[in-house]
Amino acid sequence: MSERFSSRWGLMLATLGMAVGTGNIWRFPRIVATNGGGSFLVAWVVFLILWSVPLMMVEFAFGKHSRLGTVGAFVKMAGKKFAWMGGWVALCATAIMFYYSVVAGWCLRYLAVSATGGMVGADPTEVWTSFTNSYMPLVTHVLALGIGVSVCWFGVRGIERVAKVLIPTLFLLIVILAIRAVTLPGAERGLDFLFKPDWAALKDVNIWLQALTQNAWDTGAGWGLILTYAIYMRTREDVPLNAFTIGFGNNAVSLLAGIMVLCTVFALNPDASSEIVGAGNEGLTFVWMPQLFAQMPAGGVFMTLFFLGLSFAAITSLISMIELATRVLINAGFARKQALLSVAAAGLLFGLPSALSLDFFHNQDWVWGVGLMLSGLFFAIAARRFGLEKLRTELINGPGSDIKVGRWWTFLIAVVVPIEAVVLMVWWLWQARTWDADWLNPLGTENVGTVLAQFAVALVVLLLLNKWLARRAAGATEVSS
Amino acid sequence: MSGIAVVMMVLICGFIWGGLALLLSKAVRSESAKNEVGDDG
């Protein structure tokens, strides 16, 4: 049986499900609020074009042409010496999957609690603290992972069917919540805060780097996930128009989430707005949002819809990460079910520390978040090895393409994306020096030492295994057409 | 809400949501054309 998305819309919804995750809902509103509002949005739109869309095109082209997971695709497109780079991309996305399953579990837990009225009259800080100090995150981690694995069990058809239900519903939920938020008395203060530009902020390089980071982390570009779904594209499928549509679609959802969150914050608790947007991802989502919904008429209903949307966003992204790891193992010679069970076992085991310790969770989120920037750089290097003009004219603008991409794309991948990736990594590590007095300690939670140590171990192992990885990839069977 | 915030809202939302609408309409038209010529690949 051929493994293909049944239609373009199936592919687009699944890919949008991959791109839209918790980062759109819990990170974007905080980052835009703390980085100059409208000025940040200008930089954010610029980097959608200068980072996300060009890398998405590379991923779509690699997946569609190679019909192999990340390791095999890098071997086929860049050569046997580059198997380790594909391995890095797979490792990075899989390491994120381990703790992202924990995040999806948190969302499911809060969905259940809010739907059953458990948040009524409760102190959200107390609810969050007692939840994270219990073994319950372990249970919800297993539940989230189980849902993701169950969907992938049925292959691409399972992924497509689920995306066709969850993504339109998620979009509808966010629209309903955004409409509710903008119709609250005082919501215009939130809109003003979100869109009012601080032109002086545009001279601040940090704003631009935050905007680039947001694109790197929440569009899914350079993660290898689009490549994985592109394996299942039909031959007639377009690359450039799909890449633009997914990028714009993802950022459209982010914008709605920003309106929803900031209007709710400024309408219901304007005095604490700085504290709320500075409370971190978990603080905003699991402590402040329940408090704000509690002040709203029919707040219990809207709180449930909020956590339902968040759960859908998390689960559809988790599915894509599970599928990435599964596809790499299938290419290494595993049968799908055998590969999936191996990924499930690894996810269960390596997600445990993050489920039981927020420090461990924050460490992994920090390390592999920086790792994604290296993944983006590796895609640009592999594309260059293949030949940028050949990639552009034969694969991106090749059969099935609905629009043609000019030489601007070649320039972006050859020059701009590599510079962005290197600058971003250096900037984050430079900043991290100030977060921890013992900044080179490899056992620190969020510092430079832990990134360098974990990167060094991963890169040395992957380089040592390069020949083996390339051999396994060479024997892989491409997804049938 | 200040005037400049309204202008920025129109520009940013117009670019992102308007851009998405245009891209989707192009995708719909392309898909219809491909279906008409019976390209099922």
Strand content bin of chain A? under 5%
Q: DSSP helix count of chain B?
A: 1
Largest sheet of chain B: none
CA-based shape of chain A: globular
Amount of beta strand of chain B: under 5%
Task: List low-confidence stretches of chain B.
Answer: none
Principal-axis shape of chain B? rod-shaped
Instruction: Please give the number of β-strands of chain B.
Output: 0
What does this structure look like?
The complex is a heterodimer of chains A (481) and B (41). By secondary structure, chain A is mostly helical. Chain A has 21 helices and no strands. The longest helix of chain A is centred in the N-terminal third of the chain and has 33 residues, at 83-115. Chain A is globular, with a radius of gyration of 21 Å. Chain B has one helix and no strands. Chain B has one helix at 3-36. Chain B is rod-shaped and about 55 Å long. Chains A and B meet through helix 3, helix 9 and helix 12 of A and helix 1 of B.
What is the element layout, followed by pairings?
The complex is a heterodimer of chains A (481) and B (41).
Chain A: H1 8-19, H2 22-34, H3 38-66, H4 70-78, H5 83-115, H6 124-132, H7 136-153, H8 155-182, H9 187-195, H10 205-218, H11 225-230, H12 240-268, H13 273-277, H14 280-294, H15 299-331, H16 336-356, H17 358-386, H18 388-396, H19 407-432, H20 448-464, H21 466-474
Helix pairs in contact in A: 1-8, 1-12, 1-15, 2-10, 2-12, 3-4, 3-10, 3-12, 3-19, 4-5, 4-21, 5-7, 5-15, 5-16, 5-17, 5-20, 6-14, 7-15, 7-16, 8-12, 8-15, 9-12, 14-15, 15-16, 16-17, 17-19, 17-20
Chain B: H1 3-36
